[in-house]
Design goal:
Number of helices: 16
Largest sheet: 13 strands, mixed
Distance between the termini: 15 Å
Structural class: alpha+beta
Shape: globular
Strand content: 15-25%
Number of strands: 21
Helix content: 25-40%
Length: about 550
């Protein structure tokens, strides 16, 4: 069967931007790139494949459908089709107009956003400047305690100039603002729903109200989430009648559902199982280079990981080439640091820690652990690749006298445990959704974000903090790049985590699915997707 690669080129827009292109056209171009044929054929295919329910089988359930409260990818995957942002990243990681039809930077501190007109929320409330103010006020309200508030902490004021014009003023120059507004946490929700949630009449964790092409229907937690077509969508309505995200933790079961015609999409296909999908008569593998990174984190607040020599030693004892070529079978690249090549701020001039088990043993001895030590490594039980990563680390670290006990946890409990600092070592990843180094370095390693906001390693370094803040306030692009290079090198040298790899997303997609794009940020919008066959117990192929 065919093997599709959906790797897009990176063209990020910084500084002054005036966006007037039609985002729908960009999506259509992406479909042509996947081999959908000429325009006439595409129109005929779309007409013949309208409607139906698309079934996506996922290893993990969402945690919350409140974008202001979410920190996990499974949640973002779902509400990305319910909510919309002022601007968004397309399949090529280019910023495109969303609910803002255009925007520009008026001066160093002021940005103007001109909004789309005649847009309504799923509850019938109008989208306008007041809605933008209500959302950003809620996001930044300390009582909301949004774990993503740090993305927007530079915002000093949000003003509704008129019904469809908003001015956002920052307290210092803030170059990443447009990229941050494209993040899922910048999703716009109904002001009436915000008020109802505040009064306890509605729960936005489980009852989302957005402007997107699909609206929330139901959530049987631990089992499935159902979205239905929004017939009043302000752009062209989605082709699908509904979307069902079914939670199936066991990968073999997910693959069998795809093969038997019970599902249209399977998330997280292990590299070892790609051949199985490629041999299916009704499905194909789709790969996408990811913006993010995978890592083994240390809790820098607990012994012995409060010692940089210990952290460096363990980092140097892990063979990353074995991870990429053995564990991921070449679906990815070695991570020298947290910034992948597709992220603005990445540098070819950083110096990674070498793989050197002998020097690692010397560093441990210098730190007083010549006989090694024992510790616990946590991972989530629904991700086979992370479990295998933990087992590989267990094997390789035993060579320098470090004995790991592996503990697997349910996803939600796992996130809570790490965020509360009740860990020693853990396996995790980060989706660099904005394509900007600020969203990698600030949430994950700045001391303002310890715990749930992103800094799960509890790393604290004043010099690093200063570099990251200076970079986000710098308006000259070349200077920003220099600052990010210095900041990433400091992270590599101090090793708050073992940066293992930038792996590829690998998913299985039924051949009956048309118009599917897996974006580098890990999301897959479904507004332009159509299906030629329903998924009904394997009888459809």
């Amino acid at each position: 069967m065919r093997k599709v690669s959906a790797i897009g080129s990176l063209v990020l827009l910084f500084g002054i931007a005036a966006c007037t292109d039609d985002g729908q056209n960009e999506t259509d171009e992406g479909n042509e790139a996947t081999g959908s044929g000429d325009s006439t054929g595409d129109e005929e295919a779309a007409e013949s494949s309208e409607g139906g329910n698309m079934v996506l089988v996922m290893p993990s359930d969402a945690v919350t459908l409140d974008p202001h409260d979410s920190t996990d990818v499974p949640s973002n995957i779902v509400f990305d089709n319910i909510y919309e942002t002022l601007v968004y990243h397309d399949e090529n990681t280019e910023l495109q107009p969303g609910l803002a039809e255009s925007y520009e930077q008026l001066d160093d501190l002021t940005w103007e956003f001109n909004l789309q007109e005649d847009v309504t929320f799923h509850d019938g409330e109008p989208f306008n400047a007041d809605a933008v103010v209500a959302n950003l006020d809620r996001l930044l309200d300390p009582d909301t305690a949004s774990p993503r508030a740090s993305l927007f902490e530079a915002i000093e004021d949000v003003e509704a100039v008129d019904e469809y014009t908003v001015h956002i003023t920052t307290d210092t120059p803030f170059s990443p603002l447009p990229a941050h507004l494209a993040h899922g946490s910048g999703s716009m929700m109904s002001p009436a729903a915000i008020e109802a949630d505040a009064e306890g009449e509605l729960n936005l964790d489980t009852e989302p109200v957005g402007t997107g092409p699909f609206e929330f229907e139901s959530w049987e937690q631990g089992n499935e989430i159902v979205l239905t077509n929004n017939p009043d969508y302000w752009e062209d309505p989605a082709h699908l009648d509904s979307v069902t995200y079914t939670v199936v933790p066991e990968q073999g079961t997910r693959l069998a559902m795809l093969e038997n015609g019970e599902a249209h999409f399977v998330q997280q296909v292990e590299p070892a199982n790609t051949e199985r999908v490629e041999q299916m008569e009704n499905a194909s593998i789709v790969t996408q280079e990811m913006l993010g990174f995978e890592y083994i984190g240390f809790n820098n607040e607990v012994e012995p990981f409060d010692d940089v020599q210990v952290r460096r030693a363990l980092s140097m004892a892990i063979d990353k080439d074995t991870i990429v070529e053995g564990l991921y079978e070449g679906y990815g690249t070695v991570a020298d640091g947290p910034l992948g090549d597709m992220v603005f701020g990445a540098s070819d001039d950083i110096e990674p820690l070498p793989y050197d088990p002998e020097q690692a043993e010397e560093l441990l001895a210098d730190a007083g652990y010549e006989d090694g030590f024992s510790t616990t490594l946590l991972t989530n039980d629904e991700n086979p690749m992370r479990i295998q990563m933990a087992e590989l680390a267990q094997d390789q670290l035993s060579d320098i006298g470090v004995e790991l006990s592996i503990e697997q946890m349910e996803w939600g409990a796992y996130l809570d445990t790490i965020a509360e600092g009740n860990s020693e070592m853990f396996v995790l990843g980060w989706s660099s959704a904005t394509g900007d180094a600020d969203y990698v370095l600030h949430p994950n390693f700045h001391s303002d974000n310890l715990g749930a906001p992103g800094n799960q390693t509890f790393y604290v370094n004043e010099a690093f903090d200063d570099l990251v803040i200076e970079a986000r306030e710098e308006t000259d692009e070349e200077t920003r790049l220099e600052l990010y290079e210095e900041a990433e090198q400091l992270l590599i040298d101090e090793a708050p985590a073992i940066f293992t790899d930038h792996n590829d997303y690998i998913v299985g997609v039924a051949d009956s699915v048309e118009g599917f794009d897996h974006h580098p940020n890990g999301l897959f919008p479904l507004d332009d997707v159509s299906i030629t066959e329903e998924a009904e117990g394997g009888s459809v192929y």
